[in-house]
Design goal:
single chain, 2 domains, 34-stranded mixed beta sheet, 7 helices, 47% strand
Length: 422
């Protein structure tokens, strides 16, 4: 078929289309298609290979998953795009005996809404206790803007820590990517035995809001509800979440890595996180399985000093564990555990450790059954004047006190109205 010729390139009609050098209609259509957002529809009957063939190599894409169960023979991989928007009411992506159902990499921005994703925990545990090595049901790597909303994520259980429901970010903050901005909103996450719910690495800004993280229907407790880890962590806002059936609700920790991205050590002697705000969360802890406690290795939130600070034995978890931050505000949270387990395992409601900046506010929290309400294993401040406020915290059925800290640290605290009920 003969190509239809366009007006000369200098013609006003061509200039309005912003298609310099284009001289025929078909080339113009192809060029305009590359510049627009491509809309792709996936159906449950399609194979992963068929879905990959429909994806563009560059540009932007909007993907609609039609309702139904997608039995994946391998992970669906989306990479190298400017923007990707994925949505699907009633669509369920199942990885079968594998862990990863969906992997997104090297995109400028991604939004995933309304999908359900399921995967199995790996048979073998993670290498060296390094969370960055954990495979996940949903993996997002080298993508600086991430928004996840109304997802249902589930990872199966195993006797050792080996996977996460969600992993976002790159292990090393030295990689040449823009500051990671992540929002995880109104999602439901099912955490299998000894596994991790949400894992975010080196975020510049992170909001975890209005989510429900819960224990899987089968097996023992999950190990961690949410882990935020890295060499540089910006602003964290964790609020309005309901977390249950895990040994530790929230863990924020610093790391040091070599040039290859390998974990060298955990860091708590310098402030890694800029600002940590944890408000209005409800956390109901479970005692971890014996195998999970033995396998947690470097992931455990406590330091050796905590054995002497927290009564009731060696600590096996915490409601909220935060280390090495410039500014910390923990307010309005509720943390509970069976009193016998809390006492035997030495589980604090809130654990703050390592180097802190001048701002620490722990206010209006409630603790039930934990070994201590608040345990501070922090270094003496470098600043001459600090605002370290512990106020209006309430404990019940505690093995220890509402506030546990060394005498050297107590002198830096402003304490008011922290009480335990009978």
């Amino acid at each position: 078929m003969r190509a239809v010729r366009l007006p000369p390139p200098g013609d006003l009609r061509v200039r309005r289309c912003r298609l310099p050098g284009v001289a025929d209609v078909q080339t113009a259509i192809d060029e305009l298609r590359r510049q627009s957002c491509l809309h792709v529809v996936f159906r449950p009957s399609m194979s992963v290979r068929e879905m990959h063939e429909r994806l563009p190599k560059s540009g932007a894409v909007s993907i609609c998953f039609e309702a139904g169960a997608y039995r994946l023979e391998g992970p669906l991989v989306i990479e190298g795009l400017d923007r990707a928007v994925l949505h699907g009411a009633g669509a369920r992506l199942v990885a079968g005996n594998a862990t990863t159902a969906l992997r997104i990499a090297r995109c400028d921005a991604v939004a995933v809404e309304g999908l359900s994703l399921e995967g199995a925990a790996p048979a073998a545990g993670s290498r060296g206790g390094d969370t960055a090595e954990l495979p996940a049901v949903l993996e997002i790597d080298a993508t600086p803007q991430v928004r996840l909303a109304r997802l249902d994520l589930a990872i199966g259980g195993a006797r050792t820590l080996g996977g996460a429901a969600l992993r976002v970010g790159t292990p090393s903050a030295g990689t040449k990517t823009a500051a990671l901005q992540v929002g995880v909103l109104d999602c439901t996450v099912e955490v299998g035995e000894a596994q991790v719910g949400l894992l975010v690495l080196n975020p510049g800004a992170l909001a975890v809001r209005g989510n429900r993280l819960q224990r899987a229907r089968k097996g023992d407790a999950g190990q961690f509800g949410c882990v935020v880890s890295g060499e540089r962590i910006g602003t964290l806002q964790v609020d309005g979440n309901v977390i249950g059936g895990v040994a530790t609700g929230l863990l924020v920790r610093g790391e040091a890595r070599d040039t290859k991205g390998e974990l060298k050590a955990l860091v708590d002697d310098t402030a890694v996180a800029a600002r940590v705000v944890v408000t209005d969360n409800v956390i109901a802890l479970d005692a971890p399985a014996e195998a999970a406690k033995a396998a947690s290795g470097g992931l455990t939130p406590n330091r050796l000093e905590m054995k002497a600070v927290v009564k009731g034995g060696v600590q096996a978890g915490a409601g909220i564990a935060i280390g090495a931050a410039t500014s910390v505000r923990v307010t309005g949270n509720e943390v509970s555990i069976d009193p016998k387990a809390g006492a035997e395992l030495g589980v604090p409601g809130v654990l703050v450790q390592g180097a802190l900046g001048a701002h620490l506010v722990l206010r209006d929290n409630r603790f039930a059954g934990t070994a201590a309400g608040i345990a501070l294993a922090v270094d003496e401040p470098a600043e001459r004047r600090v605002l370290w406020l512990v106020e209006a915290n309430l404990g019940s059925a505690l093995a220890g006190n509402v506030l546990e800290a060394s005498e050297a640290i107590l002198k830096f605290l402003t304490r008011r109205d922290n009480i335990e009920t009978a």
